[in-house]
Specification:
The chain is α/β, with parallel strands linked by helices. Helix content is 34%, strand content 21%. A hairpin with a 2-residue loop joins β1 and β2.
Length: 375
């Protein structure tokens, strides 16, 4: 290191800094004192990549020691997504903490068992909390002590709006949002666990943007990744539900690097298999053995995409598409589902009691292969 007109050795620099601290006599360490960036410069301290909640190709979506959010409308599968991440960690022998402001232990535990987590693993590794009172100082000490004692790798807070209301915070106030983040998510992440907040979005898609319902600081205060989920096939008992996952924020940047168009993370699928369930995140533009994509007639899909594009302004429903294309309706529906899952089409509800309306997002040609969906 060069200081002034001569080069100092590492030993001299260390001795100098130690002497300066002694002369300042600052007493107990304060967060207002400079941080030693030497370990960072030497490569001894680095920001960890995501290691949890993996897609079928092995790409992980949650960062250890960071706060994340999954934002979606009701019944869009966000709790199932969080429990899928919990199941993944628990099946690796790790502990998870689930702080629930919306549901019940019977419902949440039942879902974990349905996802294939053995009873004894749930009993040992799953720590379920259902608060009815605001978090006091003694409660906070006990909670953080438990999280650290079990070395939890994942902490889920289900119901951010309900949690803020319980503590007397306004969801529309940025100051209150900052106070909530300082009360729960940030102390929890200091344990090294990935923290996941489950939150609602506004009903209006035009006003939604990248935000959860309420204050903008809900997005600004997150240092991991924020995901938005949009339901495709509706979830329900005995049926397979799907949601499109997009990344709305990724401060460390690892997720955007593997997202289609820097945004599309994949398709979350909750597959009904008898009395059990199988959850997976399929990367954009790929197919799995359990997906419908291999059954799709690509020539039919290209024709469907062309018809929908011709009605871009008003949109078009299934019956109108079938009137123009003909053939078996089951094949048409398979093509529509695939085009929607792969983000070639957008499907939204029409007026109450009316069929869904399809519009074109981007063009599809028959020359495109199943792996070209990110192009």
């Amino acid at each position: 290191m060069v200081v002034g007109v001569r080069e100092w050795s590492d030993e001299e620099v260390s001795a100098y800094l130690a002497e300066q601290e002694r002369e300042l006599d600052l007493g107990p360490r304060s967060s207002w004192l400079p941080v030693d960036v030497g370990p960072v410069l030497r490569g001894e301290v680095a920001e960890d990549p995501p290691t949890m909640w993996k897609r079928t190709d092995g790409v992980a979506l949650l960062y250890p020691g960071k706060v994340h959010a999954i934002n979606a409308e009701s019944e869009s599968g966000k709790t199932w997504m969080a429990l899928d991440a919990c199941a993944e960690r628990m099946l690796q022998g790790e502990h998870v903490v689930f702080i629930d402001f919306e549901d019940s232990a019977a419902s949440v535990v039942g879902r974990l068992v349905a996802l294939g987590v053995p009873d004894d693993v749930v009993e040992v590794c799953f720590h379920y909390i259902r608060p009815d009172d605001p978090l006091g100082d003694e409660d906070a000490e006990a909670l953080l002590g438990m999280v650290n004692a079990c070395t939890a790798s994942l902490v889920v807070l289900d119901g951010v709006t309900e949690a803020m209301v319980l503590h007397g915070f306004s969801i529309k106030d940025n100051d209150d949002t900052a106070r909530f983040m300082a009360l729960l998510p940030r102390p929890l992440k200091e344990s090294g666990a990935a923290v996941v907040l489950l939150d609602h979005v506004t009903k209006s898609k035009d006003e939604r943007g990248r935000f959860a319902i309420g204050a903008q600081h809900k997005l600004a205060g997150i240092d991991g990744a924020v995901y938005s989920a949009t339901v495709g096939d509706q979830y329900g008992r005995g049926r397979t539900g799907t949601s499109k996952l997009e990344v709305a924020k990724d401060r460390p940047g690892h997720v955007r690097a593997v997202a289609g168009d820097g945004k599309r993370v994949g398709l979350f699928r909750l597959v009904a298999e008898g009395d059990s369930l199988h959850a997976e995140i399929v990367p954009p533009g790929t197919a799995t053995a359990s997906s419908i994509a291999p059954l799709v007639d690509r020539e039919l899909a290209a024709r469907v995409a062309k018809v929908v594009a011709a009605y871009q302004s008003a949109g078009i429903n299934v019956t109108a598409i079938h009137d123009q294309i003909g053939g078996r309706k089951a094949n048409l529906l398979a093509a529509l589902n695939w085009l929607t899952d792969e983000d070639y089409l957008d499907c939204s509800g029409g007026a109450p009691g009316k069929p869904k309306i399809y519009r074109s997002v981007r063009l599809f040609s028959v020359q495109e292969g199943a792996s070209d969906g990110d192009a």
